[in-house]
Design goal:
Blueprint (H helix, E strand, L loop, with lengths): L6 E6 L1 H16 L9 E6 L3 H8 L7 E8 L12 E4 L9 E9 L3 H11 L5 E9 L12 E5 L5 E2 L15 E4 L1 H5 L2
Parallel strand pairs: 2-3, 2-5, 5-6, 6-7
Antiparallel strand pairs: 1-9, 3-4, 8-9
This protein binds 1-O-pyrophosphono-5-O-phosphono-alpha-D-ribofuranose.
The site of 1-O-pyrophosphono-5-O-phosphono-alpha-D-ribofuranose has 20 residues, from strand 2, strand 3, strand 5 and helix 3.
């Protein structure tokens, strides 16, 4: 059985992601200048591929840092518990911060992140997310850059996992229900 046999359908193709990453980067290039010297915070693990592609299309000077947050454990639904597994190396006080997420679903993780960052007193904070699932939102969150809105389906690939697998798929796909129902 190949990894691809677990995919019900491709929701967003590799080519569509590539094209959108470029236009999203152009939106950000229109806002920031070298003087802003923003720091992009990649929220691991899901955002690693998005950040890697996105950063290569940004034309202003910027820095990168990484933070690992986990809220889902190995299941398909949020446990409601958000934990910092790896904290930033940088001090972001007085800095222009851009949070980079792979997906905003209920909004609970991002709410936690934004509260946590507020305490670090950045000069500004914006959020970029590749995907947003508005139908699942439990708490409203400010999203400044959104790649795609997706329906309420179990999405995997391009960084997004199920049970830590499928992150390497180059597209955003929908997982066959029998895969997670039998887990
Ligand atoms: C995912 C995703 C977001 C969060 C969104 O992370 O990367 O951080 O869930 O869900 P929410 O809006 O319902 O809070 P996950 O905990 O699966 O960790 P991962 O990125 O390491 O896969």
């Amino acid at each position: 059985m190949s990894l691809l046999d677990d995919v019900e359908k491709v929701l967003i193709s590799e080519a569509e992601i590539k094209e959108r990453v470029v236009t999203l980067a152009a939106e950000m290039n229109a806002i920031y200048t070298d003087d802003d010297l923003p720091i992009l915070i990649c929220i691991l693990k899901g955002a690693f591929l998005f950040l890697a592609d996105f950063t290569r299309h940004l034309t202003f000077r910027h820095e990168l840092d990484f933070m690992e947050i986990s809220s889902y454990g190995r299941g398909t639904t949020s446990t409601g518990t958000v934990r910092i597994l790896l904290d930033l190396a940088s001090d972001v006080q007085g800095r222009n911060v851009i949070i980079v997420e792979d997906i905003v679903d209920t909004g609970n993780t991002l709410t936690y992140i934004l509260r946590n960052f507020a305490a670090r007193r950045p000069a500004s904070i914006r959020v970029a997310t590749l995907l947003s699932k508005p139908s699942r939102r439990q708490v409203e969150v400010p999203l400044d850059f959104v790649g795609f809105e997706v329906p309420d389906e179990f999405v995997i690939g391009y960084g997004l996992d199920f049970a830590e697998q499928y992150r390497n798929l180059p597209f955003i796909g929908v997982l066959k229900p029998e895969v997670y129902q039998n887990f």
